[in-house]
Amino acid sequence: MSYQAPLDELRFLINELVDLEKATGKNDLVSDDLVFSIWEEAGRFATGVLEPLNRPGDCEGLRFEDGEVKTPAGFVGAYRQLTEMGWNSVGLPEELGGQGLPWLVSSPITEMFSSANKAFNMCAGLTQGAIEAINLIGSAYIKELYLEPMVAGRWTGTMNLTEPQAGSDVGAIRTRAIPQPDGTYRISGQKIFISFGEHDLAENIIHLVLARLPDAPEGVRGISLFLVPKFLVNDDGCLGNRNDLQCVSIEHKLGIHASPTCTLVFGDQGGATGYLLGEPNRGLAAMFVMMNAARLTVGMEGVASAEAALQKARAYAFERVQGSKAEDPSTAVAIAEHEDVRRMLMLMTSRTRAMRAMAMVIAEAQDLCESSDDTAESARQHTFVSLMTPIFKAWATESAVEVASLAIQIHGGMGFVEETGVAQIWRDSRICPIYEGTTGIQANDLVSRKLLRDKGEGLSLLVAKIRTTLQESQAFATELRKPISALEEALNSLEGCAERIIALGDSGIENIRFISVPFLMLAGNTVGGWLMLQCAVRALQARGSERYAEQTLESWRQSAEFYSRYTLAEVHGLERQVLNYLEDAAAAPAADIFRY
Amino acid sequence: MSYQAPLDELRFLINELVDLEKATGKNDLVSDDLVFSIWEEAGRFATGVLEPLNRPGDCEGLRFEDGEVKTPAGFVGAYRQLTEMGWNSVGLPEELGGQGLPWLVSSPITEMFSSANKAFNMCAGLTQGAIEAINLIGSAYIKELYLEPMVAGRWTGTMNLTEPQAGSDVGAIRTRAIPQPDGTYRISGQKIFISFGEHDLAENIIHLVLARLPDAPEGVRGISLFLVPKFLVNDDGCLGNRNDLQCVSIEHKLGIHASPTCTLVFGDQGGATGYLLGEPNRGLAAMFVMMNAARLTVGMEGVASAEAALQKARAYAFERVQGSKAEDPSTAVAIAEHEDVRRMLMLMTSRTRAMRAMAMVIAEAQDLCESSDDTAESARQHTFVSLMTPIFKAWATESAVEVASLAIQIHGGMGFVEETGVAQIWRDSRICPIYEGTTGIQANDLVSRKLLRDKGEGLSLLVAKIRTTLQESQAFATELRKPISALEEALNSLEGCAERIIALGDSGIENIRFISVPFLMLAGNTVGGWLMLQCAVRALQARGSERYAEQTLESWRQSAEFYSRYTLAEVHGLERQVLNYLEDAAAAPAADIFRY
C-alpha cells in the first residue's frame, strides 16, 4: 500500500478548526480550491516521487568515500524534481523567490513529504532554516550572493552547532574564528552530527557555523554565527575554490539511513573562510530563531511518522484475516475486528489527529503573528507559539514513537520484518525526541522559560482558548458528555500543577525539573483533548451540511470520545507523578528521593 | 563498557526476597556459596564469550545460501564452548544429563546470557523447550534416541507453529501428516517465523511440528505434534539421510540479526518423515507446555534487555560531562547530575528491579510446585505461575522496550548511533512483546482464562501475598509511608477492576477485551510495587546486619520510594482507562465507542 496524503483530514481541519482567511488576511490566495489543489499536487509528489525512494534509500544507505557522500539511487533526480517544481520553497517569501504560502498551507506539505520520505525531506527543511537566518541577519552583500541559489535549491544549507564536548550545552563550543584583514574570518574546529553536512544533491553547501571570536566571553554570550560555504563564492556568484572544510566521517545510525550525519572538520589547512552573520557574540540568538523553527519542523516530522505508521497499520488490519469472533467462531475475520486491535487503531488515529490539530493551531498563530498589524496581537500570538513549541516538539515526537510502535504491534511478527516498512518508521521516528533539543530540554524550556520566566502568560492564553471550547461545547452537552468532563478535569490538573510550579518558582527549580517531562506530557495530552473536543463540536455543528460525509463527522466525534476515555485518562497518572514530587517539596526534596 | 552480571542484585533477591532452601527442598546443592559461584562463572561466560559477539553478530548478520544458514563469525565456537561447559542444560533434570539446577538458580543465568547476546541465547532456550516436551510425551524409543544428544547440545530443537495464514490463530494451521505403514508420518506444509529453524551450530535440528492428521477435526482440537528431524536418525543413533524439509528463506529483521528466522518447507519431495509425539489431535496441549515455558523465557529476555540497557545508560550518564548546575554554573558536571537524567535512571533502575523480582517470585513458585509433596500446595503454586505468566510476559517485555528507549534518550544523539549498542538493545527488545503471543494475546489470556475461567483464584493468591507484605511493612510505617499508601491504592484499583471484570463475565467479554491490555499493565505495575515494597522491608530489616553495604540497602528503599511515586502513580491513569469502559458498559458498549 502506498502512502496517500491525508486530504480529508486536512480539509476538515482547515475549514473547521482554523480560520485561514483571518489568519493570513489574504482571501484570494487561500480560496479553498487553490489550497486543495496545492495539497493534492503535493500529495501526488509525495506518493509518486518521494515514497518510492524511502525503503530503497533505507536499505542502500549512504556511501562515504574520500570525503564525499553519495546519496542512494534516485535521490539526485528526486531532488532536481523537487526544486524544479518549487516544492523546496513553498513557505519562503515571494520576494526571495519562494512561493510565499502561509504556514497553514505549507506545514501540511512538510508533513506529507516527511511521511513519504523523512530522510530525504530533511535537506530542504534545513536549507529553509538557513535561508530564514541569512535573510534575518545577513548583510546585503551576503543576501545578494547566497539567497537566490539557496531558495532555488541549487545550494543547500546546514546548522553547525554540536561539537564532541558541546551537545545540549551549546555554551561549551570551542570552534574558533580569527578575523582577517579583508573582513572575513578563519574558522577552525570540529562539528559533529551535521545533517546533510555533505552530499551530492546540490552544487554548494552553505554551513551556518557557531564559533568563538578571540577574547569572546565564555559560555553562551561569546558565540558568533558564521556563514561558511563548501565552495567559496566569487563576487559574480560563480563558485570559486573549495573552502578549507571537509567531511571526515558519517554516522552509522539506527534510522534515517539516507540522511547523512556528518563530522565536519574546519580549518585543517589553516582555516576555512567564513563570513560573520549578524553581531559578534550574538550568534546564539540568531541560531535560536532557526532552532525554534526547526523544533516545530521536528514536531511535524512526528505527525508525519504517526500518519505513515497509521496508514500501514490500518491497511494491514483490514487486510489480514486471522481468528474469529465469539458469536461466529467458524468465520475468520480481519484483525481490525478484534477488540485489542481496534483499541490500538483508535489510539493511533485519535492521537495522530490530535497531533496534527496541534500543528494546525500553531501554524494559525504563526500566520496571525506575521499578518497582524496590531503589535499587541502579534506579540500574543508569538507568546502562544513560544509556549506551544516545546509542548508540540516533545509531545508529538514521543507520541510518534508510540504510534509507530503500535503499528509494529498490529503487524505482529510481520512488524518485526523490515519489508513491511513499519519497523523503518519506528527507527526513523526515534531521532525526533532527541534532535533539536531532547524531550528533557523541551520540558526544561517549558517550565523554566514558558512558565516561570513568563509568569504563565502563554499558559493563560492557552487556558482561555480551552475555556472557550468548553463553553461552545455546552450546546452538545449530551453527545459530548465524556469528552467535556474529561477535558474539564484535565484542565484542572494542568492549571493546578502549573500554579504549584509557578508558586515554587526558582527556589524549587530542582524539584520542578525532576517532573518537567511528566508535566509536559500532561500539558500535551490536555491540549490534544481540547483540540479533539473542538473538532467534535465542529463536526456536530456541521451535521446535515452536506459538506462532509456523515461518517466523516461521526469519526471526529468518535476520536474525541476515545481520546477523552483513553489519553485524557492518562492525565490522572501524570498529575500524580507531578504532585508526588511537588507536594512534599519542602519535606522531602526530590533530590533525596531521586538519589541514585 | 562491557556487560557485568548483576550479582549484587541477585544476592539480595535470593537471600531476602525468596527462600531458596524452602522452594527446592535441597539445602546441599543450594548453599549460598555454590549458587554464587555458579552465577559468577555464568557471568564470566556472558561477559567473556557471549557479549563480545553481540554487536559483531548484529552487524554481520546471517548468510543464507542454498538452503543453508551461516551464523556470524565466532558463533560456532561460542556454541561449542557453551555446550562443553554444560551451560545449555543448567535447568534440565540430572537424569537426562542436565545440571538439574532449580528455576531460582537457572533463570538468572538465562537473564545473563540474554543480556550479553540475546540472539545467540535463543537457540539453547528453544532446545530446552523441545527437550521438555519430548521428555513429557515422547515414546521410550524417541526419548532414547533424541534426548541425550539434545541435552548435550549436539542437536538443537525448534517449535514449528506459525504458517502464513496461522499466526495468533494456531487453529488455522494446514500442514498435513499422513500415516505410513511403518508407524511414521509424511509431513508436508510450510512453516514461517521458525527461530533457529536452520543454522550451522549443531549436527542436527529436531523440529517439533504442529500438523493435521487426515480427517482431524477442524480448529485447535485437530492438531497433532510431530517430531521431524533435519537428518533422519538411525536406530543406533547415528545420523541417516537428509529429511525432506528445507529452509527456503530467512527474514530481514529489525533486530536479533544473528538469530535466523526461517521459512521451512516440509515435504517438497513427497513428505518429510515425522514421528507422532503424544496422542493424536492433542498436540496443542503439549505445545502449550512448551509455550508457557517460552513465555516466561521471553519475559526473562525482557529483564535481560532492560539490565543491558541500564548498564550502558548508567555508565554513559556518569562518564558524559555536559552542562552545569545552577549553584555552580562554571563547573561542568556528569549528566547523571541533571534532574531529568536522574529521573530516567531511577525509572530504569526501579523498573528493572521490579521486573527481576517478578521473575524471581515466579521461579520460586515453579520450584515449590515441582518440589512439593503436597498436591494442593503444588496446585496452588501452579495457579500462581499461571496467573503471573501473561502478566510477566507482557508487562516485562513492554517495560523492556521502554527502558531500552530511555537508554537511547540518556545517550542523546549518541543513542541514535549504532556503535553505542543501545540502539541494538532497543531493536532486539522489540520482538519480545510480539513472539510467543503478543501483548494483546497475553491480556486476553489474563482476563479470559486467569480471571473469568478460574474465577479469580490465582488473583486471590496474589492479593493475599500483597496483603502479607503490607502487614509486614507496618513495622516501617514511617520510612515507607509513600510506598505503603501507594501500594494500598494500587491494590484497591486492581481488586476493584478485577471484580468488575469478573462480574461482567462472559456476557461482557467484548467490552472487557477492549481494556484487557490496560488492565494487564495495571496488574503489572501493582505487582512490581508489591515486590519493591517487599524488598524495601527486607532492606530495612537487614540494616546493621553487615551482610550488605548500607548504600545497597538504602538503594532498595530508594527504588521502592521512586517506584511508588512514579510507576504506581500510572495506575491512576490505567484504572481510569479500564473503568471508562467498564462503567458505561451497559449504556455505551465499547464496540460503539471504538467504532472506527
From TrEMBL, chains A, B:
It is an enzyme of class 1 (oxidoreductase). Gene3D superfamilies: Acyl-CoA dehydrogenase/oxidase, N-terminal domain, Butyryl-CoA Dehydrogenase, subunit A, domain 2, Butyryl-CoA Dehydrogenase, subunit A, domain 3. It catalyses: 3-(methylsulfanyl)propanoyl-CoA + oxidized [electron-transfer flavoprotein] + H(+) = 3-(methylsulfanyl)acryloyl-CoA + reduced [electron-transfer flavoprotein]. Keywords: FAD, Flavoprotein, Oxidoreductase. InterPro entries: Acyl-CoA_dh-like_C_dom, Acyl-CoA_Oxase/DH_mid-dom, Acyl-CoA_Oxase/DH_mid-dom_sf, AcylCo_DH-like_C, AcylCo_DH/oxidase_C, AcylCoA_DH/ox_N, AcylCoA_DH/ox_N_sf, AcylCoA_DH/oxidase_NM_dom_sf. Its cofactor is FAD. Its EC number is 1.3.99.41. Residues 463-582 form the Acetyl-CoA dehydrogenase-like C-terminal domain. Residues 75-153 form the Acyl-CoA dehydrogenase/oxidase N-terminal domain. One of its GO terms (molecular function) is oxidoreductase activity, acting on the CH-CH group of donors. Coiled coil: none annotated. Residues 159-268 form the Acyl-CoA oxidase/dehydrogenase middle domain. Residues 281-448 form the Acyl-CoA dehydrogenase/oxidase C-terminal domain. The keyword Magnesium does not apply. Belongs to the acyl-CoA dehydrogenase family. Involved in the assimilation of dimethylsulphoniopropionate (DMSP), an important compound in the fixation of carbon in marine phytoplankton, by mediating the conversion of 3-(methylthio)propanoyl-CoA (MMPA-CoA) to 3-(methylthio)acryloyl-CoA (MTA-CoA). This is 3-methylmercaptopropionyl-CoA dehydrogenase.
